[in-house]
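User: My instructor asked us to take a sequence, write out its structure as tokens, and then describe one feature of it. I'm not sure where to start. Here is the sequence I was given:
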Amino acid sequence: ADIRGKDGSLAVVNHGFGTSTSEELLYYYDRMVRPWKPRALVLATEANDVGFGYSATEVMEILARIIQWAQADFPGIRIYCFNGTPSLKNKGQKNVSTRMRKEYNEMLEAFCAVTENCIYVPVEKQPFWYADPAHIGDYDRVREDIFHEDKVHLNALGYSLFMDFIRELLDDLL
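Assistant: Let's start with the prediction itself. The structure tokens for your sequence are:
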């Protein structure tokens, strides 16, 4: 969904596309990012990359290139890097996806710490994902009422809560 600024004008455009990978974001950068001349870029990668066989290192390398391009194209741009968003699909599983997510999150946080105007956003620690504040950050305790039946994609309530989070994150730019 698109987000309007405080003046009512279009401020945030969602260019996410289903089952995309970091490599596809890199490929479509010229169409999805450059023409908009953004002041900020919100990047959420990793979720689909695991299923397509990418390692955490490969995803991080691709993301670093995207960030370098954006910083070269738009000096001073703020870049918000989201770590993996929770879902119900892997609930209770300790598998390759869980290990890769942890490794990627650590690399992403370290990268953002040393990259100018690059902000690491630990999405899984946002309260709206959890019914009980005591469970914040526990992927196994994610609310079920904000997901479609596929247990991966957000439903209308989930997207509404996520958009509120984005609005708050970008408040000073809107």
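For the description part of your assignment, you could build on this observation: DSSP finds five helices and five strands in the chain. Try explaining in your own words what that tells you about the chain.
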